[in-house]
Automatic annotation (TrEMBL):
Lineage: Bacteria, Bacillati, Actinomycetota, Actinomycetes, Kitasatosporales
Organism field: Streptomyces prasinosporus
Name this polypeptide is given: Protease HtpX homolog
Subcellular location: Cell membrane
One Pfam family from the record: Peptidase_M48
Binding note for cofactor: Binds 1 zinc ion per subunit.
Domain of life: Bacteria
Membrane topology, as annotated: Multi-pass membrane protein
Length: 303
């Protein structure tokens, strides 16, 4: 874990929520692995696979995200404006500069990923750069840098692992039942059904825990980014513009990116209904704009 201190406003509620989420997910992970060992009767196999997948997601999360989003690291010569904005923000925040990447996608978005400050990456799509004014882009980048400073990028990366592995096991067990059911005895079929049930339950619990943390961390990043730039209206403008433009992106492109919703500045596909908001990775646009309006008033009162 990094011990970075920056000028980003600390958020004790975010820290507390991250600790509670990681504790509950860690406990759930131990129970999950223990259940798989009992059902599959293979300690070594389960432990090796679980440890290997967790290690791969932790160490290579930045590369996986960049590959999936067609992102590429860029030099200062290739993207001078982008590097210039990040340089200024990092100097203002007194934090190490992350690597800078660009994704050649029309989807207007940005995300930060990486296991710590030394391996962090901030990626911006060409669609976002094309649509935003300089002050709006600065607000979005300040938002993403706050994720790195608050260390919630690493937490959300690790936290999402349990849901990923549980989901993979559900699919594996389902297809094993579907295509190999006739050749297996009844005990094996029952074991596979139990594995699927336990995995589905673990996936559901981890899904809800991660969504709750993700929604709060986005509000915390909005606040920290707005306070750093002292321009909450610019961030609000970027949010409104990006959310409106995402609705005009082809659905197929949005679904390709939806797996990384928890990392994005705005979700690739919005929840759409009140009930679905409970399962969203982000607060509603109205909630985020309301919070930014409060910050604008707060800064005005201070001035």
């Amino acid at each position: 874990m990094m011990t970075m201190r920056s000028r980003f406003e600390p958020d004790r509620q975010l820290t507390a929520r991250m600790l509670v989420t990681m504790f509950l997910l860690g406990l759930l992970y131990v129970v999950f692995v223990a259940a798989l060992i009992v059902l599959l009767k293979s300690v070594v196999l389960v432990v090796v696979i679980a440890a290997g997948l967790l290690g791969a997601q932790y160490w290579y999360s930045d590369r996986i995200a960049l590959y999936a989003m067609r992102g590429r690291l860029v030099t200062r010569e290739e993207a001078p404006q982008l590097h210039g904005v990040i340089d200024r923000l990092c100097a203002t925040a007194d934090m190490p500069k992350p690597r800078v990447a660009v994704s050649r996608m029309d989807l207007p978005n940005a995300f930060a990923t990486g296991r710590n400050a030394d391996h962090a990456v901030v990626c911006v799509t060409t669609g976002l750069q094309r649509r935003l004014e300089p002050e709006e882009l600065e607000g979005v980048l300040a938002h993403e840098l706050s994720h790195v400073a608050h260390r919630d990028v690493a937490v959300i990366t690790i936290a999402s692992f349990l849901g990923v592995i549980a989901g993979l096991i559900v699919r594996f067990a389902f297809y094993s039942q579907l295509f190999g059911g006739r050749s297996r005895d009844q005990n094996t079929a029952v074991a596979l059904a139990l594995v699927m049930a336990v995995s589905a339950l673990v996936y559901a619990i981890s899904f809800l825990l991660i969504r709750a943390l993700s929604r709060y961390r986005e509000l915390a990043a909005d606040r920290a980014g707005a306070m750093l730039t002292a321009k909450p209206s610019a961030l609000a403008s970027a949010l409104t513009k990006v959310t409106g433009d995402v609705a005009r992106i082809p659905t197929q492109d949005l679904r390709t990116a939806q797996a990384f919703n928890a990392f994005f500045f705005t979700p690739a596909l919005g929840p759409g209904t009140t009930v679905a908001n409970l399962f969203s990775t982000h607060p509603t646009l109205e909630r985020r704009l309301e919070a930014l309006a409060e910050i604008s008033t707060e800064l005005g009162e201070t001035a």
